[in-house]
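Appendix B, example 12.
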Amino acid sequence: MFVAAFFAGVVNSIAGGGMLLVFPMMIWLGLDPKIANATCTVALWPGLFGGLFGYRREMDDSSLILMRLGVVSVIGGGIGAWLLIVTPSPTFARLVPFLIFFATILFMLQGPVNRWVRLPSASGDSKKAWWTIAIVVQLFSAIYGGYFGAGNGIWMLAAMGLLGLRDIHRANGIKNFLGICINSVAVVAFSISHLVLWPRSFFMAVAALLGGYFGARTARRVGRVFIRRAIVVIGLVITVAMVWRMR
């Protein structure tokens, strides 16, 4: 569990999708899927703080984005957590690989799409249009993140790329902050609903925190081109893994 949670923290800080390293393991250990999901969410939550700290230098002039999209993330995360608590997951789980695959394709094609569609950027003239798109996209992303969350980081990175945030390290830092907002609400909701196995969560949380910081530091050293390629690979691997799980 410690090793899986460490690498999940690494993957989450770079691109997202770390849940798929620990969630199947918890199912293999015999846990109910809903309890496994809640326990993994709590366990990986501290890793986002490690990733956020690792990207702190790249997040200058991001306070307005963090504040506005953070509020949206809290609301959406609460809705998603509530949906998980009151409904079974099989139907939504079938959509997960397709959502992740679509987000990965968007990330691969974000440069040509930006030039073709001419979407507004955060620093452009059409700030009202940018904020409208950003808030709507982040709301749906946060709902999904609160409900299951595997690959949600890739979805947020793809969305931010299409919205004009082309610095991958800055986008990763913002993504980690928004992930903290989403999962903070989910952690509280799952705790109140008694869905969390706390000893296992605390054990994996230590590993996820270390992995999150290590992943952010590694991403800053190896360069942006490598990270973009790694994100695409991670997205495709997660898609295949989720499709295999559905068989």
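The chain is about 80% helix and 0% strand. The chain has a mean pLDDT of 79.
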